[in-house]
Write the structure tokens for this entry.
Amino acid sequence: MIEQIPNETTEREYQEAQKRVRKIKRFYTNLASWAGTSVFLIALDVFLSGGMTWSRYPVFFWGISILMQVFQIIRLQRMDKSWEERQMRRFMGRNYQPRNTTATLPQEQQEDYSDDLLNQQEREMADLSEYRKLKKPWEDKDLV
């Protein structure tokens, strides 16, 4: 296993990921408090006035703010590092290599998986040969 030396970019990426996790956690906390408070306000309104008169307004407007947080969370999840790499590949062509990947490591530090990939196809073919040995549940003469 390659021991990674922490540097400025990995520390920055870690901090960005930590910010994203905090935002998502804050969203779930706000969603739970909105749901609990909404149920309480609606129940109080129904109990006191016999219907929903005033409780729909705070529930609605607080729900709008929760919905805005949902859009922020969706944007955060879609626009991560892999999104940036996909966009770079899209604009620069298929041969784009990110700057801080294994392609920049010296040859002796890169792990070689080519034998595993080549042997995987042979293993899959061997698995198919077992299925070919099974007896068909129909007779060829029954087919039209």
Notes: The chain has a mean pLDDT of 76. The CA atoms of residues 127 and 133 lie 11 Å apart. Residues 8-94 form one domain. The two ends are 59 Å apart (CA to CA).
